[in-house]
Amino acid sequence: MKLAVIEIGSNSIRTSVYRSSKRNRFKTLDRWREPVRLGKSIAQSRLLTNEQIEETIDVLKKFQDRIQRYEVDSISLIATAAVRLAKNQEQLIFAVLKETGLQLHIIDEQEEAYYDYVAVHNTMRIKDALIVDVGGGSSEISLAKKGRLKHGLSIPIGAISISDLYLKSDPIKSSELANAKKAINARLDNLNWMSSEATFVGLGGTLRAVTSILNREGKKKKTLHNSIVTSEQIDTLFNRLLHSSNEERSKIKELSDGRFEVILGGILIISEIIKKTPSNEIRFSNFGVREGYVFNYFHKMNQAKD
């Protein structure tokens, strides 16, 4: 069976095409993405603009054409924080259905954290894991103990929202930085279970970019999955980017697709989270919500067959 999953995120729309193999496993046949900054307006007004809705539909139509060559059995269209937080999400759901025939499923906070856990559980041999997914509009934090999910939640802060609401200057002022940290910690202070001994597993666009930069500069392997970065490396990179201009950040190839505008907000969230844990390093997972969704999808399919 072949399945295509399109994920509408806060910073981009991503698509992957999968073919099921042995029980609950699959092979990724292709993947691609296109930057669409839905999270930018959400941070300010909690509304998707007509232009953003039109751009989303144009991208979805283009992706549908590309998916066709794989003769998939099914297409799943899911959306995360940017659409979840939008007051006019029904407008997007209706427009997408009318223009593409696709039914948009908005993943709730618990689902998103759960799918992150499922992805990590199935691709990493880690029994005790604190799983942190910093996205554009939200961050998901989950704790697994002995391979079982104990806690999982989503907090409405992400790389785009922190950058757009607090880190507005170029260069960024120290007062802005202090206010951003205060806002992040207000969301973290009651999560006492983050102090549990566990491997810190990080995923999402911010950490993908950070790991790519550090691997390239350290001349390490190009395979990102299971790469380890230390909190010291992250802090050093943050300080370097903090003292660079927007133009200078835009020239870093891993940030050239528009991520340079929001990378500092994303790294700041990661940095503040890791301070609440016993960890001093992060193991990166290249698999997240989409893959967790697919593992779950094929598991249900196999259960139905049985």
From TrEMBL:
GO molecular function: pyrophosphatase activity
InterPro entries per UniProt: ATPase_NBD, GppA/Ppx_hydrolase, Ppx_GppA_N
Residue ranges annotated for the Ppx/GppA phosphatase N-terminal domain, each copy included: 17-299
Domain of life, source organism: Bacteria
Name of one Pfam family that matches: Ppx-GppA
Membership in a protein family: Belongs to the GppA/Ppx family.
Protein name as annotated: Exopolyphosphatase
Organism of this sequence: Companilactobacillus allii
